[in-house]
Amino acid sequence: xxxxxxxxxxxxxxIVRPYTHVCGILAGNGxxxxxxxKGIAPECLLVCGKVLDxxxxxxxxxxxxxxxxxxxxxxxxxxxxxxxxxxxxADANFxxxxxxxxxxxxxxxxxxxxxxxxxxxxxxPEPMSISPISENxxxxxxxxxxxxxxxxxxxxCAEYSGRGPGKGDIQPSRMDNPLxxxxxxxxGTDIISCSNKLHPFYISKSGTSMATPLVSGACALFMxxxxxxxxxxxxxxxIYSARxxxxxxxxxxAGMLSVRGLLQCGRKx
Length: 269
Hints:
It contains 8 helices and 8 strands, in the order E-H-E-H-E-H-E-E-H-E-E-E-H-H-H-H. It has helices spanning 19-27, 60-73, 96-111, 157-160, 208-225, 231-240, 249-252, 259-265, and strands at 3-7, 45-49, 79-84, 115-119, 139-144, 184-186, 191-194, 202-205. The strands form 2 sheets. The chain has a 6-stranded parallel β-sheet, sandwiched between helices. A two-stranded antiparallel sheet has the order 7-8. Strand 5, helix 4 (157-160) and strand 6 (184-186) form a beta-alpha-beta unit.
């Protein structure tokens, strides 16, 4: 079983996405649906952190506190994956020192062999609309793409999903090419998962925050099958196994998540 930590709403400001839905996508047992809506990695262990208030509002300072918390508990718990299903506005006026601190914490976690999966945000289709969190080279930046499928929100996922290139001014210099963001896409439209109410048990939501736990869950399955794999190896297989959708990199990254391809890629390590 793989330990997986996560922050589970969809915005650092104004958009509420309950933790329950993200947790269900990751590790729900599907009991209330006779297994139909089981999570992608139902045997992984979850450690949930809260960085937003009940209205979905938050601050970069709260996120920094959350990252410090993960760094601290990582000394006691076998956390291998950090799922960040929140976004920051790309054009927001953040404190530069706090941004540098965030980058430092992300790099510390990466160096400690933690796989960091973060949502690209829903500010597309403008260029350079990637969330500053997932723009960091230590993160696997997840956008969503469901072709022409229009969900309940009336827009295609590929249209509102954050797009690259990255700004290139917040990456640790030795990490990936800062301009090549996002890294990968996954389904993000009308994803059915657990509700935070007794009725209905399941609801559908859309956005890059729904696509992100699908990638995190796929990485958990990979680590379960190949427990000695490093985060560098997992990321390499994740990128190499993605299915090309024929879009430009700023829209699709390496392509669509392929769980089967990812698991097969591990045989070649």
